[in-house]
Amino acid sequence: MADKRLVFLGPPGSGKGTQAQRLCDRLGLTQLASGDLLRREVREKSEIGLKAASFMEAGVLVPDDVITGIMLLAVGRLPAGSGFVLDGFPRTVPQAEALEAGLKASGRPLQAVIDFRLDDAEIIRRIITRRVCIDCGAAYNTEFMPPKKAGVCDRCNGEVIQR
Question: pTM for the complete prediction?
């Protein structure tokens, strides 16, 4: 496994998740998306997941320290020497500062941050045409990256729906 430690940032529809997935597949890295990890911790009822759930149930944003804790916990669970791409995280300056400090303390400082930028019209077009597998999360786009069989995931044969 490659020991690359990267962050992919950008607005929804910019392609950061798709490119993170491709790079991870090619280099044997782990893709860590904050929303996926947050939902997993809540579902597993971990200590930090229960803390996050209390904010979610109250209808408020999960605080920076909680979401950063979830991300650092996920990185800490990776085998030593394995690389990762943080997909869409951090989103705020306090998250970035806490992430940087936590990764340095663990001996896994970031190596690069890549910021994906597109004009608003292109972002809207991509969001309207994107699809996702409900089972494995594989991303598709009806215009330029559709599944081989309409509505069926190429990876796991799961159902592909509009996201």
Answer: 0.82
